[in-house]
Amino acid sequence: MIIEKIPTHVAIIMDGNGRWARSKGLPRTEGHKAGTEVAEKTIRWAYELGIKYLTLYTFSTENWKRPREEVNFLFDLFADFVTRKIPEVKKEGVRLRFIGRLEQLPEKVLKVCKVAEEETKGNSNINVQVALNYGGRAELCDTISRIIEDFKKGKVDLPITEETVSKYLYTADIPDPDLIVRTANEKRLSNFLIWQAAYAEYYFVDKFWPDFSKEDLVAAVEEYNKRIRKFGAVIENE
Ligand code: IPE
Ligand code: IPE
Ligand code: MG
Fold first, then answer.
1. Which parts of the chain sit beneath pLDDT 50?
2. Ligand 1 probe mutation, 14, 17, 42, 76, most atoms within 8 A of CB
3. Cα dihedral 136/139/143/145 (nearest 10)
């Protein structure tokens, strides 16, 4: 199939690391390690396909409910991985940004995020947003608080418009996702980009995240090409 439309923004809910590990008789941590490698490859595949924005759901505001050891492992893995990869990411022209309640992250992780953003801010081959301690509801609460602060300073007018809300989100200058992919055959959003996903197309993969491949990403984009996006309107000759 010839792909005519490449989605500008693909967002992925990378799910199933734990089950992947369990299916192999391994500890969950091995699933997270394997999942991290696939996340790195996915950035390359997305770039090869011409996707300009890729958002990866990495840790949710609800994931703190997991055992302390798993949470610590995830943050250590993330910090080490990003620190190691910064030079290559920089060289490959990847712009890395982090969205979520970053100030609540362990000091070490926050520092790595800041360095990665700073080092890659001039890049534009592909924009990669890492959703870390991200929750869509938390984002809306933060957005509302910031709008009210600016309203008090006379910088915001009533009524609040959709454009105003979008401008105050973590994703202010990032287009809304066109395509949301979720692995591990779960069919829910789990608090991911709830405002931004209003008109996204969804694609579900019946594989655990560490088994996700370039073919799966291509299949998602091919399926996206078959979708007719109407945004509430009537399409002639449908
Ligand atoms: C996704 O895999 C990674 C994170 C949410 C951090 P999971 O860890 O959720 O894997 P399952 O869903 O338990 O298999
Ligand atoms: C969503 O996966 C969060 C990430 C992939 C980071 P979860 O595994 O946390 O979602 P639920 O609990 O199955 O909804
Ligand atoms: Mg999960």
1. none
2. 17
3. 120
